[in-house]
Design a protein that fits this description.
- The structure is a homodimer.
- Helix content of chain A is about 30%, strand content about 20%.
- By secondary structure, the first copy, chain A, is of the alpha/beta class.
- Chain A folds into two domains: about 80 residues, 2-Layer Sandwich (60s Ribosomal Protein L30, Chain: A); about 150 residues, Alpha/beta knot, CATH 3.40.1280.
- In chain A, the strands form two sheets. A six-stranded parallel beta sheet of chain A has the order 7-6-5-9-8-10, with helices on one face. A four-stranded mixed beta sheet of chain A has the order 1-4-2-3.
- The longest helix of chain A has 16 residues.
- Chain A has nine helices and ten strands.
- Chains A and B meet through helix 5 and helix 9 of A and helix 5 and helix 9 of B.
Chain lengths: ~260, ~260
C-alpha cells in the first residue's frame, strides 16, 4: 500500500540531508532520529520540530498535525540516513547541555575522553541508560552524540541520558574534595577485587590511546579489567565492551 | 614511496573479491584477513595460502617468499574489503571444525543461537578470547565467522578461538548428565546473585528474538542481567554487550 504524499519539498530534503553535518546541526540546533523505537522514545521527552512518516507509522500517541507530514516510501528513502528506512524520520531540538550544573552527589556518571567511533558512542549511551547512569560528560574531541549514526546506535537511550560536552579537566577541578574519579588503566587494580562506590565519575578513554595523560592524572582510582586469555598475545577490549563490564561491576556492588 | 609491484593478476583480484561470498569461501575452504594485527595474529597459528602486501608491511617473522606477493597501494585498494586498506591482505585456510570432539570438561564455552550481525559476532569472538573461552559453538543460522567483516571485528582473536558450526540441540544431547547450560532470559534469575560454575555452556541468542524456543528448553540455568534504568521504557542490551557482562561475571567468580 502506497502512502498518499503530502509532498516534501526539495528544500526540506536538502535541509534534512545537511543535518548529517555537525556544523549544520550546531547552527540549526537540531538533529535527526529515525524509526518507531528511537523516534517514539525521544517523543516521550522532547517535542519534535518536524516528523516525516509513511502511513505505516502508528505511534502510541499521534503528534500534532502541524509537525507531521505524511510521505511516500520513496520520499522516505530520499531523506533517510539508514540503509533500510523505518517508517519515520523526525527532527528534534538538541537538548540544553546544562553546562554549569556540576556533578550530582550520590550518583554515578560517565566521562568520555576522546571517543571517536559513532557506533561506540551510541552503544555507550545505551549502556549508561541500562545501568541507570543519567549523565555522560564528553570531552570536546569526543564524537558528536547527535550524529545520525550515534542517534540510531543509542536505540532511544538518548532520551534518558544527559550528554554534556565540556572540558573534562575543568569538570574535575569543580568536583568536591575526595570525589572519586575512576578510570580503567593498564596499571590499574583488578576491578573485581576493588571496593567501588555508588558515587563518582567513571572515565573511559579513546579507542586507540586510552585516557589522555592530563585526564589520567586526575583519576583517583585506577582500575583494570583482567585478561583471562592464556598466551602471549596482547589482546584488547573494545571501549564499549569495557564500559559495559565496568558499569556492571559498579552496579553489582550497589545491589548487595 | 611507491611499492614496486610484482603484479597481481585480474584472476587473483576476482578470486579475492569472490571470497566475500560464503558460498565461494566454502567451496575454496579459505577466507580473507587484513591488516598487520589481524594477519600477524593468524600467522602465528595458521599457514597463509597467499599474502599480498605493500612495502610498508614489516611482519615480525617474514613469510615464505612463495606465498608473498608485493603489491602497490593501488592494487591493495582494489582487493581490500576495508575502507582504509592496511598494508596487507592474506588468504588463510578455514580451520577444521572438530565437529565430533564434544565439550571439554572443566571449561566454559559459548553457544550462539542465530547471531546475525557480523559486527556482533566478531565482537563476541574477541570477548571470548579476552575471557579465556576458547570454543564457540554456532548454530547453523549464525552469521559466518569467516565473513571479512567478522574477521576484521575479531581483531585477531579468530586465531585463538575455535569456531564450531553445529546443531545446538544435538550438541546439548551429547552433553554429560547435569552439564550446566546457562542462558540469559527475561524470566531468569539475577546473574549477580547466582552461583556460576567454571564449567558449562553459555548460550547467547539472536539479536531480535533471543534464544530460540527449542534451545531455551535445554537451558538448565536461567540468568538475567538486571536493568538499573528508572522508568517506564523497555530497554535492551546489545547481544555483544550482554555476552561481555555475562562472561565477566563467570570469570570474576573463578578469581575468588
Amino acid at each position: 500500500m502506497q502512502t498518499k504524499s503530502e509532498m516534501i519539498s526539495k528544500n526540506q530534503i536538502k535541509y534534512i540531508r545537511q543535518l548529517e553535518l555537525k556544523k549544520f546541526r550546531k547552527r540549526e540546533n537540531c538533529f535527526v532520529a529515525e524509526g518507531p523505537k528511537v523516534v517514539g522514545d525521544l517523543m516521550k521527552r522532547y517535542q519534535p520540530k518536524a516528523i516525516f512518516a509513511t502511513d505505516e507509522w502508528h505511534p502510541s500517541s499521534m503528534p500534532d498535525a502541524t509537525v507531521l507530514t505524511r510521505i511516500t516510501d520513496d520520499e522516505l528513502r530520499r531523506i533517510s540516513f539508514l540503509q533500510a528506512p523505518q517508517q519515520v524520520l523526525a527532527i528534534f531540538p538538541i537538548p540544553e547541555g546544562m553546562k554549569s550544573e556540576g556533578v550530582k552527589s550520590g550518583k554515578l556518571s560517565l566521562a568520555l575522553d576522546g571517543i571517536q567511533d559513532p557506533g561506540n558512542l551510541g552503544t555507550i549511551i545505551r549502556i549508561a541508560d541500562w545501568f541507570g547512569i543519567d549523565t555522560i560528560y564528553c570531552s570536546e574531541d569526543t564524537a558528536d552524540a547527535y550524529n545520525p549514526k550515534v542517534v540510531q546506535a543509542t536505540m532511544g537511550s538518548l532520551a534518558h541520558v544527559h550528554i554534556i560536552y565540556c572540558n573534562l579537566l575543568q569538570l574535575f577541578q569543580s568536583l568536591p574534595p575526595s570525589y572519586p574519579v575512576y578510570g580503567t588503566l593498564l596499571d590499574g587494580n583488578d576491578i573485581y577485587q576493588q571496593s567501588l562506590s555508588q558515587e563518582g565519575i567513571i572515565v573511559m578513554g579513546n579507542e586507540g590511546n586510552g585516557i589522555s595523560e592530563a585526564v589520567r592524572e586526575r583519576v583517583t582510582h585506577r582500575l583494570l579489567i583482567p585478561n583471562f586469555h592464556q598466551g602471549d598475545s596482547a589482546e584488547s577490549l573494545n571501549v564499549a565492551i569495557a564500559t559495559a563490564i565496568t558499569c556492571s561491576e559498579f552496579r553489582r556492588r550497589g545491589t548487595k
